[in-house]
Amino acid sequence: MGQLDLQTFRDSVSQQQPPADLSFALQALWWDAKGDWDKAHQHAQERDDTAGMHVHAYLHRKEGDHSNAAYWYRRCGAAPSRLTLDEEWAELVRAFLAQS
Fold first, then answer.
1. What digits encode the pLDDT tens for the residues 43-88?
2. Are 57 and 72 in contact (CB under 8 A)?
3. How many CA within 13 A on the CB side of residue 2?
4. Is the overall model pTM greater than 0.90, yes or no?
5. 69 lies in a domain?
6. Cα separation, 86 vs 71, whole angstroms
C-alpha cells in the first residue's frame, strides 16, 4: 500500500473493503466512516494497545456512552476530546496514518 493521506483514506470508504495493511485502529475508523459502528467497535477491540483504546473511546463517545468513553480515554492516557466527532475522527486518522 502506498502512503495514504486523510483524503485518500476518506475516498477509500466508497470501496467494499478497507485498503490492505491498515492497522486495526485505522480499520475501525474506516468501518466507522462506512456507518458500521459494530464492525468498527469489533476492530477497535482487536488489540489492547493505545491506538485501539483511543478509537474505542471515540466510538463510545459517538455512541453517547460518555462514562464508557471516559474509561477508554483514561486507559489510553488521553483527555476526553472536546472536538466535534468529525474533527476527532480526522485527527485520529491523521495521527495513525502518520505512524504507519
1. 999 988 999 999 999 999 999 999 999 999 999 999 999 999 999 9
2. yes
3. 5
4. yes
5. yes
6. 21
